[in-house]
Design a protein that fits this description.
The structure is a homotetramer of 437-residue chains. By secondary structure, chain A is mostly helical. Chain A folds into three domains: 94 residues, Fumarase C, Chain B, domain 1 (Orthogonal Bundle); 269 residues, Fumarase/aspartase (Central domain) (Fumarase C, Chain A, domain 2); 63 residues, Ribonucleotide Reductase Protein R1, domain 1 (Orthogonal Bundle). The first copy, chain A, is 64% helix and 5% strand. In chain A, the strands form three sheets. Chain A has a two-stranded antiparallel sheet. In chain A, strands 3-4 form a two-stranded parallel ribbon. Chain A has a two-stranded antiparallel sheet with strand order 5-6. In chain A, α6 runs antiparallel to α7. The radius of gyration of chain A is 30 Å and the shape is elongated. The two termini of chain A are 42 Å apart. Chains in contact: A-B, A-C, A-D, B-C, B-D, C-D. The interface between A and C is large, with 50 and 50 residues. Chains A, B, C, D: This is Adenylosuccinate lyase. Chains A, B, C, D: One of its GO terms (biological process) is 'de novo' IMP biosynthetic process. Chains A, B, C, D: It comes from Sphingomonas panacisoli.
């Protein structure tokens, strides 16, 4: 976890205190169920909650000190609780194993993290929608291979991003369901020493579903799917960040990250305004993607369980969720305040001497009876001249002066192919597909 | 693609012939829709299908030769079709761009690959279920950290695998839906030169859904999610393969890959019977997982599109699906014919002098009023003696001879804790959760 | 292996024929050594070479047919050789194990692949050097964050690439040495049944060093290092490819991939000239990097060996080396024929109204006694006006009109800060560092 | 960074204080050189060092507060230094850019981290050597595919690990040299505003070499190679950790992690002694390997530089080095105190009824004139009976009772093939190769 790439709400999920609080709730709910089943005295569960309701401070240092001796974190925690609650605490954890606590706790943490990330996506989607509608009909050049292709609108670019993050939201909702299971099944998962009804009770109280078959641990394919989904979302963040980095290039400058007063772009060059936020997002995306492979490697635990997954999760549990939360927040801010320059877009759009209309002329020629190959050749030979003139020549002028072209199309017909609105006529259709309505 | 790790049905999806066939269908269906819209003559579409219905051989070499000149695969294909169909062919591809063909084709291929993989999973699930039920109550030792823990059944191991692959099936069904979209939206995705109804028609004919907003290409987050899902499935394959590799170890030998007559385990050591299939699966899983990262890196294309994704997909499209198909088939065969040795399982289960019952004694002591810490100490001190005796001492004997233990529990009470059936009493519950019923 | 991204020399290393030829040489050289040691008859080795000198065709299909029964590739090969050589063949492979053959063969193949890749790097370095010297003093804008910073030369860009690939060459030479070891140590590597002098003989004949301690297999940390090195080289390829993609953008157009006659940039848009080769290289780099992780996962084999590495190497051995060879060749061609536009570079360099000189003015102000903070503020406030004017205003004019600036610097002093040569004065120094001399 | 997987010496490299101290030294040494060149007053450099020699506390919070306004870390630091040093501080950083400071600082940090890791490897190598010599001739079964193969010694296993980590040491020394470069080249690396002699001076003072051609930043192929090397080392850690995990399995139990008094293996099962340290190392290895991919992705920065690498390095700089340092320390402790059980090794070695001698019999039969195929068949048919008897039958007995075998070999000849020392005769040779002497 890197503090500068962290936000407090997500970070709070991963503190030792938060973890111990979830552990207590798992243990206390389980003790309730054990008491209902007559396995432990009703009073034992009551004692636990009575102490808990005093809102005790979690003494992390004390628990760590016990762990330094026992070398076992859950035993250390239980010992500390027993020191506070007294004799009734011995009924806690009856028939349970540490993994029941640890894995169910991780499920709660990842579920809560997923909820924050879903809210992050909702915030991003709202901003993308607002700005997409704002620039629904702002013409700009569409680029394939970094080369001018044909006109689009800036709103279409954002509509695409909206649709992509909306898919990511659905994927995350599925991954959240995948991860949100409770296992209280005891050693090697047989329920030998603990009734399955305890698991059902704890699951219900914590808002989880029951893990159908655990083997002391919750199977790690669930976690792998969760972190893989975060990796896909990171890929989408990089895509949108890269778009903005491109648009802010000096020669393009169609959009720009907001540049706050007092900000310095470079210690050496006072003229600089750099897309540092989106460059930063590009790097953060690399990290979130980098956590996918360890998560995939965690699936193949030995037999009923080994503990190799645990250290990995101590890193990637916080690091992947905190980083992605920060990145989504940062991206939302970038889009929200993005400086958008329609005039520059218009200027760039016209930079290529009308080349962006080459396809329409090609189609018109074929429809006028010229073979596809000849049409292509006719348009390409004029287009290449414009290309090489660095925008000084006009495709329209050249075409009107090319007798092979004018043999098939009249000047008016040619001119009609250079109409910008022609390219925008289905923007409504696409917006309706993406945003409904 | 490595021939020895390939099966013909999946491989057939990825041949040049198969690709060109899909390309033709996309073009011809699109021409139908264009004809219905009055953009091209009805006869043009008819000519295409008429030729197609002669079941023409796809001359891959001829198409490649054209591509060597044009350096553009779709143009090469269209030129070749035109050579065969004649003049009407010039109406093909009107207003379309290569990506419309390429991306929709890839969607068909990945969708078809997903269908094979889903069938593979169904076959694996059927075998897992059969063998799980066969060994539902075959006792075997459960191991955590590779160390004997408490009894489970061999059926439970397979039930866990069933549940895991059943989750994978659901994930793959979702990934299939994610990938199965059709884009016929023309240059930079604006439909400027092609009516959206063409896309709808082709989508319907090919069994795809319409891509809501494409940018000449189908967005690559869909593909990233698809390949990430394959990576998760590979992780599960490695898990089950690793289980079998462990069970076949000389000292364990509770199960063994089928060893066919005439097979040689080692060129040098005639006594060897090695788990080479599951070791192979472990390696194949590494490959399928390795393809996830390039797929994630493919998401961030520049602006409306660049073509950097294409070379990646020429590798991982076939390699990931063919390898996973092969691996699932191989794993299904391994489980189907797995030699399972219940006698050895029983022998191993009893190897540790009854240590596997330590928890029950611990719980009984605490329920008899001994503190948890004292109970743990009492059991551990006897357990460690058994442990160090290499199975020569019996935990039951030692406990009955420990006055601090017998002060709390009678000999009969202690003996009752060494009952195997105690551990198996919830097997039915778990099977019902996994298999229903 | 994707044929279109393959070159014949590298591909030839990985054919079954080539593999079987190396196998034979290992076996025959080993038999020579065994004969010298008196373990097998001298005539046995002679028989092998006698047959070999007839230059026999390797009947891959026959060997595969035998493997289909024995399920063991080396045994199948030995059987086939015995069918050809006759009775003396039974002395082959005495005391050896399959891995002796397989791993030493892989060492030969990777060593040969490394030699091709080193030659590829040499070719690339030669081209980079030539073009760097050609454009040693061609001024162009240096960009940080995609934003104009200060002038550099195009030669400097290529000198950087040269230095980077020269480092990669040194890394590959080291990786080649790491991989080029011979192990003929028999089952579990103890030399129990084969004298270490056999290994020494084979190593010398094949140009390998002796593996100091093998465990039936050559340790896979060597291979991991090899493939990791290829991954680093791929990263450098992506860097240079990305540079060219940026330079070819429509708005920048300072350099361009060679566009051959007859080439079509787009099936739909005849005006397009796209940087498809460097985009392709970007994708290929993703693949070569993607093979690093499976190679790293291959290190942790079980005990003296398991065979999980084998399937991985059947993919990445050919795929990583063939792809990288192709990519290096393609990149060399791109640089060799790169169209470079000094006029456009000059135009772009002057596009920003002189902003690229902001640092020099800043430094001059501080040296004239203005505090750093005030200097920064003075330059920035004028620079931002120029920035927002889209190149219409001139920084020089504004500075000369700013009384706070002119209080510290005279107009002549300010003008002197706008001298291009100032930025190029150390190009010689850097070239001498990179190219020597 | 996860505190429980961190050691103080390595962690200290990565604190904000440590970073600011290195920044200061870079700036002050550069100011010395600038003063020598007459660019800034001699007194300015003296003022810096005078303040520094008062051993001032680095007020991280104050610097962070300035950064919150300027959004630029180096400017914030310079401002804070100026507040402390006074007017002379304005001569600092003349002609430099932030990257000169940041990248050279990172080089110092990674170089220092490499030095700790090299020392870690030395400590591990010393322990491996000691324990290898201790068990040089302790016989144990060698296993391929997890299946008993032929005898080795425990010392050989450790000698292999020694050789592997010795290779890793050499790789790390090379990676250290690769990373330890100094760049003080100013904006876009042209030295326009700073003399190359400044760089040479700072490099010498900090023990770095001069970066031949930087582009404002040090090229990231260097860092990629560094982190890839750490990933390879992590692979070797996983290999040795996996070996120990296997050896500690209940059925094997040939070695065991030291189990300290007061330790609890399981909260539920008091009998457990689990290889938790080596399982933990397996997980940590996944993390260190996981950082390789982001490092590889960092190479392709845009043009002269973008800042996407920076966030990645804020994670993996500390995380990869701290985790690897911890892992190497933990592994050294595990090997140092490893409980090794020669009796159990002997017991396991004899477990298979002499099957481990099958190869010798095979070779003897062929040398007695039986064809290789027949020899294999004869040995295999007896071996399979022993295999299936679960160690109850003896291969020696069966062979002596097989008339086809005794037709070729006398009983005494057969018995002689069952001699353990035969397998150990080259241990000295291998030890001499690995440890010299």
């Amino acid at each position: 976890m890197v503090p500068r790439y962290s936000r407090p709400e997500m970070t709070a999920i991963w503190t030792p205190e938060a973890r111990f609080r979830i552990w207590f709730e798992i243990e206390a709910h389980a003790t309730d169920a054990l008491a209902d089943l007559g396995v432990v005295p009703k009073g034992a569960a009551a004692s636990l909650w009575k102490w808990w309701n005093t809102n005790p401070t979690i003494d992390v240092a004390a628990i760590d000190a016990i762990e330094a001796v026992t070398k076992h974190d859950v035993i250390a925690f239980l010992t500390w609780v027993a020191e506070n609650v007294g004799d009734d605490a011995r009924f806690m954890h009856q028939g349970m194993t540490s993994s029941d606590v640890l894995d169910t706790c991780l499920a709660v943490q990842l579920r809560d993290a997923a909820d924050i990330l879903i809210a992050d996506l909702d915030a991003l989607l709202a901003v993308l929608k607002r700005r997409a509608e704002e620039h629904k009909l702002t013409p700009t050049i569409g680029r394939s291979h970094g080369i001018h292709a044909e006109p689009v609108t800036f709103g279409l670019k954002l509509a695409q991003a909206y649709a992509e993050f909306d898919r990511n939201r659905a994927r995350l909702v599925a991954a959240r369901a995948d991860i949100a299971t409770c296992a209280i099944s005891g050693a090697v998962g047989t329920f030998a020493n603990i009734d399955p009804r305890v698991e059902a009770h704890v699951a219900e109280k914590l808002g989880l579903t029951v893990e159908p078959v655990s083997t002391q641990v919750i199977p790690r394919d669930r976690h792998a799917m969760f972190f893989a989904t975060l990796g896909v979302i990171a890929g989408s963040i990089e895509r949108l960040a890269t778009e903005i980095r491109h648009l802010q290039r000096t020669e393009v400058l169609e959009a720009e990250e907001y540049f706050s007063p007092g900000q310095k772009g470079s210690s050496a060059m006072p003229h600089k305004r750099n897309p540092v936020l989106t460059e930063n997002l590009t790097g953060l995306a690399r990290m979130v993607r980098g956590y996918v492979t360890p998560a995939l490697e965690n699936v193949a635990l030995w037999h009923e369980r080994d503990i190799s997954h645990s250290s990995v999760e101590r890193y990637i549990g916080p690091d992947a969720t905190i980083t992605l939360d920060f990145a989504l927040g940062r991206l939302t801010g970038v889009i929200d305040k993005l400086l958008i320059y329609p005039k520059r877009m218009a200027k760039n759009l016209n930079k290529m001497g009308g080349l962006v209309n080459s396809q329409r002329v090609l189609l018109a020629l074929t429809q006028a009876g010229v073979s596809r190959e000849d049409s292509y050749r006719l348009v390409q030979r004029n287009a290449m001249k414009v290309w090489e003139s660095d925008g000084q020549l006009s495709l329209l002028d050249l075409l009107k002066a090319d007798p092979e072209v004018t043999a098939a199309l009249s000047p008016a017909e040619i001119e009609e192919k250079f109409d910008l609105d022609y390219h925008l006529k289905h923007v409504d259709t696409i917006f309706a597909r993406v945003f409904g309505g």
